[in-house]
Design brief:
By secondary structure, the chain is α/β, with parallel strands linked by helices. It has three domains: 6-174, HUPs (Rossmann fold), CATH 3.40.50.620; 180-357, Argininosuccinate synthetase, chain A, domain 2; 371-401, no CATH class. 41% of the residues lie in helices and 20% in strands. It has helices spanning 15-28, 48-54, 66-80, 91-110, 125-136, 154-163, 239-252, 277-293, 296-314, 321-333, 364-367, 379-387, 389-397; strands at 6-10, 31-38, 59-64, 114-116, 141-143, 177-180, 185-188, 218-225, 228-232, 235-236, 257-263, 269-275, 339-346, 349-357. Strands 3-2-1-4-5 form a five-stranded parallel sheet, with helices on both faces. The longest helix is centred in the first third of the chain and has 20 residues, at 91-110. It is elongated and about 80 Å long. It starts with 5 loop residues before the first strand and ends in a 5-residue tail after the last helix.
Length: 402
């Protein structure tokens, strides 16, 4: 341990990372540098630099990475329609690689020999952080206190903080583990660990209860250019502002709450309650626009790769050739995904109102049930005969074996 002189800590100011600053100084006798990466948790940043210095850090970096988070992580996920297990919108998963990237940049700048994260030994984040660290700074030692120290629970961590007068935003009465960024807020632990317990509406920060949502629908028109959202109701927005605006609009209509039991990478099932209003709305609208603009075979194959993309992001395999290769494929599929989708939001529900694409594959003259001069219905007979030939041959030749 004595060869470690300087450690950069992925710092959030939460329970775990708050006590880690002190613990590293005690156990490694090393200089500690705190690094907090802003991916949208603005309210949590107030006084954070001062707190880090006060609780053991020699320096504290607050890095604004919101724009890069949106353009290089969120937008690619939207274009990929990446949903883990068809429900989880990857709010935490997408934030970890960019946080790790910025931590590594600070570690290289400070010539630190070690990098530390506060993820537990039970969760996914330890994998996400460490795979990113290994890809971007393989020579650095990785310190994971939850796999080293004697602290075994949230209550132990709270007791550790109290003994050292370290202020933490968690109490034994409400030990939620919460992660906030532009894309979502997650809630785990406490009463949520009992699957029979209903979540408490009071914990949500981005969404209102359906009971409190407006009694009439709110209509939102979203414009996309090559799969990337660029405007709301005809007004252009910069990437970060667009996400924030949709969080407000969708959240005010109770859109974006999810209560799921997911399969963690480490092998256990875990309950997570999430609120992701902008994410829920954008995935829905993007999927509707793709239905007009992506041909059948490409769309069906993309569905397979969407699951793979989500799995890679969830498992922390972001800085890898396979993810870059999938991005290349997905970007080709987005060539004609330009247009607008209008969605009705009402008390937690979404309904598509209209779809309009610049280069649609939907052809009204072909799809109509009225008389048309494009499609010859007699052609269907030959198509069905050939398409059904294997089925017919099997039925004839194996009839005696039934």
């Amino acid at each position: 341990m004595s060869d470690i002189k300087k450690v950069v800590v992925a710092y959030s100011g939460g329970l775990d990372t708050s006590i880690i600053l002190s613990w590293i100084k005690e156990h490694y006798n090393a200089e500690v540098i705190a690094c907090c990466v802003n991916v949208g948790q603005d309210k949590e940043l107030a006084g954070l630099k001062e707190k880090a210095i006060r609780t053991g850090a020699s320096k504290a970096y607050i890095i604004d990475a919101q724009k890069e988070f949106v353009t290089d992580y969120i937008f690619p996920a939207i274009k990929a329609n990446a949903l883990y297990e068809n429900r989880y919108l990857l709010g935490t998963s997408l934030a970890r690689p960019i946080i790790a990237k910025k931590i590594v940049e600070v570690a290289k700048k400070e010539k630190a020999g070690a990098i530390c994260h506060g993820a537990t030994g039970k969760g996914n984040d330890q994998v996400r952080f460490e795979l990113a660290f290994k890809a971007l700074m393989p020579e650095a030692k990785i310190i994971a206190p939850w796999r080293e120290w004697g602290i075994k629970s949230r209550n132990d961590a709270i007791d550790y903080a109290k003994k050292r007068n370290i202020p933490v935003p968690v109490t034994k009465a409400k030990p939620y583990s919460s992660d906030a960024n532009l894309w979502h807020i997650s809630y785990e632990g406490g009463i949520l660990e009992n699957l029979e317990n209903e979540y408490d509406d009071s914990m949500f920060q981005m969404t209102v209860s359906p009971k409190e949502a407006p009694n009439k629908p709110t209509y939102v028109k979203i414009d996309f250019v090559k799969g990337t959202p660029v405007a709301i109701n005809g007004k252009s927005f910069k990437p970060v502002e667009l996400i924030k605006k949709l969080n407000q609009v969708a959240g005010a209509n109770a859109v974006g709450r999810i209560d799921i039991v997911e399969n963690r990478l480490v092998g256990m099932k875990s309950r997570g309650v999430y609120e992701a209003p902008a994410a829920t709305l954008l995935y829905f609208a993007h999927n509707e626009l793709e239905s007009l603009t992506v041909d059948r075979d490409t769309a069906h194959y993309k569905e397979i790769l969407s699951h793979k993309y989500a799995e890679l992001a969830y498992n922390g395999v972001w800085f890898a050739p396979i993810r870059e290769a999938l991005d290349a494929f997905i970007n080709v599929t987005q060539k004609y995904v330009t247009g607008s989708v209008t969605v009705s939001l009402y008390k937690g529900n979404m309904k598509v109102v209209s779809r309009k694409a610049k280069h649609p594959l939907y052809w009204e003259e072909l799809a109509t049930f009225d008389k048309d001069a494009v499609y010859n219905q007699k052609d269907a007979e030959g198509f069905i005969n050939l398409f059904g030939l294997p089925t017919k041959v099997q039925a004839i030749l194996r009839k005696e074996y039934k």
